[in-house]
Amino acid sequence: MRQGIFELRDSRKIASYTLHEDTVIFACVNGGGDHGDQYQVGEMDPAELDRYTVFDVKPTVEDWLAWADGNVSQVIWDFINDNHSHLEHNDDYEPNKVYPSRRSWERLSKALGNQDIKALANSGILYHLTTGFVGFEAAVSLVDYVKNYNKIVTVEEILEGKHALTKDFSINDHNSLIERFKQSKVFDRKLDDQELVNVAEYFVRLPSELGMVFFSVVSKGSEVSHNAHGIHTATLSDGSTAKDYLMRILAQNQ
Fold this sequence. Notes:
Blueprint: H1 2-11, E1 13-14, E2 17-18, H2 46-49, H3 61-68, H4 74-82, H5 102-112, H6 117-123, H7 125-134, H8 136-147, H9 155-159, H10 171-184, H11 193-203, H12 208-219, H13 224-233, H14 242-253
Antiparallel strand pairs: 1-2
Helix pairs in contact: 5-7, 6-8, 7-8, 10-12, 11-13
């Protein structure tokens, strides 16, 4: 492997094939902090490192969720969205023990395919299959999550005005729902008048620290001028507007 990398980098060749002059070479290695030293990877010496421009990259959970949208099953996407700690293992590794990783969740999703995941959970198959891909702890949590999957508040329910379902939400619960709004791309279309009121009713119930986060999701939609204005000016059940709430948030932050 290292000989091949040297040939690519120094001779611009591989297996007698010469690279196009505009080819840019990227070489990636597990290592560095966050338990990277536990991977069985040889260290790169100075003669190797000075042939590259080196960057340490640490993708966030949100980065993975953005990539996973459409690349893994909806249930797994929702599970990781609601349980960030299960995306990957962040402690010491025990020999021969299976741990979750970003790639193993994708592999599990492909293995599950289009199966009825709730039926698999009830039969016990999901637990045994998931344990083999992401380990015992993540498997137990996923099975429990799937069995209660119908209790998740969806974007569609908020659009229908069922914001009362969020009355006992924690900040993490609201964060997860905001991620669902982002994933749904619902703000790429013009919401009708009632949907705008319903979204505004949810918006004013958000903790102030999440209000601006939610509105940034609205602002990234392709129909931002219509939706942002409609949410701002919608008259709520108590006679106020979302604009009044937004002004209070801004005043608190100043």
